[in-house]
Amino acid sequence: MNFLEYSLHWVKGEILEGWIILISGLITLFCSFCLWYFGTTANAKSLILPMIVVGTLFLAMASSMVYSNNKRLPAMQQSYQENPMQFAQNEKKRVEDFQILYPISLAVSTVCFILTLIFFWFTNNQTLYAVGIPLSIFGIALIVIDYFSKERASIYYEQILNYLK
Description:
- By secondary structure, the chain is an all-alpha fold.
- It is built from five helices and no strands.
């Protein structure tokens, strides 16, 4: 497998991840619709808006990932054809630049979980409970996304370094 194929595999993995997040967003929105339509308790009704917010966030993130990475595929191929070494250098810098996002998303996940625990342990407010549940879903989604993304980025970065040797 040549270096361009590794690059394309990495981008296709990002696209797959985007589709998974998009489907998760649609499922979350569907669940909020079901809560609106079938929910009869106050807890069910208070969960609708927070679930819509999280589902919309998932859709926005996923749409951006799928769109930008699909645009990146032909640009990568062209850039590689023009100057393979410069392409590898640019990819190395790009991968290094987004490594800061992993600790940030882990921190956001941690805050989501801590807020959820605070809401459930120290309050007796159904609205805060309803906010806590989607917060924990969002936190789990970030961890899962980063779990796969970080692995793919590490493998890709290793291939970049091997290519540049």
